[in-house]
UniProtKB/TrEMBL annotation:
Note describing how the cofactor binds: Binds 1 heme group per subunit.
Superkingdom of the organism of origin: Bacteria
Protein name: Tryptophan 2,3-dioxygenase
Lineage, broadest ranks: Bacteria, Pseudomonadati, Pseudomonadota, Gammaproteobacteria, Enterobacterales
Binding of substrate, residues: F40, I41, V42, T43, H44, R111, T309
Species per Swiss-Prot/TrEMBL record: Gallaecimonas xiamenensis 3-C-1
């Protein structure tokens, strides 16, 4: 590091003149200052600053994930930064409580001045969605329309270009697909696993038959058939491809099998970091979804069934987006395919050795 030659001063370093001079209240401009508009502006600005930090972490993670040979040190950095990402998410989810100290009536003191601005013009929020892997085809019709009609030309062009770039979900798929986990010479892992799965489903069926009768029995057995079919897709590529085409899954078949393998044998030393990576991504999705739900509840409290300043139906629109805009759905699907540890095929010593560390020597 080069020696510091000029005295660094707190407010210059943080450019506080710009930061603290950027709270211009619309209500004041209109000659009717509304006390709570300051809270509204500061809360949104704090969100945008944290979005900036989240994007900083995400871009750096994606620069590392894009490497065709990802070594364990890079993986450790990725996991560390994604962990930080989730801690920030928890913090900003809690910020909603602060804004909720504004009463719905006090909001009305300045709300009309904001039309037609709205949160869906937050480019950083959309950028996070897109980079993480939210596809345009997945968005609700209304979300898709507003995306194009409510943004200015520069923002729209920026986000459209971003949609053409690689996403974290694509990178995850490529990384999982190239892991050499599925090829063990002389060890038919998936054959063993398939038998284990069969035994588990047969045992589930026996329990259902013992416990239920009549219509309940029929509907429980139907549900179980659905689960059997989902297992079938794991072993039958054309079935799997059909689910992909229908949009029920988005991870490629190889990637799904690797992710499953990591989850099944997450105690193996070599899988510690890959397992943490998959877990962090699920947590990111959960925390995003939790924010969306909190936001919907706040919107209901503030607006009842009024339409939004941006022209959407308000809380109904946001509730629909909450379920549509899930990010790593397939990682949750893995839980369908988990078997208890005792039912798993025992890995041959040769494979176990490859998956272990040998700090204590061989
Ligand atoms: C009084 C508090 C708030 C109310 C009543 C509110 C209301 C709304 C409404 C009604 C929408 C739908 C678009 C529209 O028609 O206007 C929306 C979208 C959105 N708001 Fe808020 N909002 C509030 C606070 C916040 C805060 C603090 C943030 C943080 C950045 C935020 C971020 C967003 C985002 C990102 C969207 C787009 C979501 C999507 O399209 O899926 N909102 N908000
Ligand atoms: N859409 C909100 C207004 C609102 O919350 C808002 C307005 C301008 C800039 C950001 C906003 N925050 C989130 O949507 C409403 O309909 O009341």
């Amino acid at each position: 590091m080069r020696k510091n030659t000029h005295a660094c001063y707190y407010s210059d370093y943080l450019q506080l003149d710009k930061l603290l001079g950027a709270q211009a209240m619309e209500s004041e401009k209109h000659g009717h200052p509304a006390h709570d508009e300051m809270l509204f502006i500061v809360t949104h600005q704090a969100y945008e600053l944290w979005f900036k930090q989240l994007l900083h972490e995400l871009r750096s993670v994606m620069a590392l994930m894009g490497d065709p040979v990802l070594d364990d040190r890079a993986l450790a950095t990725i996991v560390h930064r994604l962990k930080r990402f989730t801690v920030i998410q928890k913090l900003i989810n809690e910020q909603i409580s602060v804004l909720e100290t504004m009463s719905p009536q006090d909001f009305l003191e300045f709300r009309d001045y904001l039309v037609p601005a709205s949160g869906f013009q937050s480019v950083q929020f959309k950028e996070l969605e897109i980079r993480l892997g939210l596809r345009r085809s997945q968005r609700t019709e209304a979300d898709r329309q507003f995306f194009y009609s409510r943004l200015n030309e520069a923002d729209r062009t920026y986000l459209l270009a971003l949609e053409q770039q690689e996403t974290l979900t694509c990178q995850l798929d490529r990384w999982l697909s190239r892991l050499p986990l599925l090829k063990f010479e002389g060890f038919a892992f998936w054959e063993h696993y398939r038998r284990g799965a069969q035994d588990m489903l047969d045992s589930d069926e026996a329990i259902i038959r013992q416990t239920f009768e009549g219509d309940s029995l029929t509907s429980q057995l139907d549900e179980l058939d659905g689960t059997r079919a989902r297992f079938q897709a794991l072993f039958d590529d054309s079935h799997y491809q059909r689910l992909l085409a229908e949009g029920q899954l988005s991870l490629s078949h190889d990637a799904m099998m690797s992710a499953l393998f990591i989850n099944l044998y997450r105690d193996e030393p070599l899988f510690q970091l890959p397992f943490q990576l998959l877990t962090s991504l699920m947590e990111i999705d959960e925390l995003f979804t939790a924010w969306r739900y909190r936001h919907v509840l706040m919107v209901q409290r503030m607006l009842g069934s009024k339409i939004g300043t941006g022209g959407s139906s308000g809380s109904d629109y946001l509730r629909r987006n909450t379920e549509a805009n899930r990010l790593f759905r397939d990682l949750y699907a893995i839980s369908t395919y988990l078997l208890p540890k005792h039912a798993l095929p025992v890995l041959p010593d040769k494979v176990k050795k490859r998956l272990g560390f040998s700090l204590g020597g061989d």
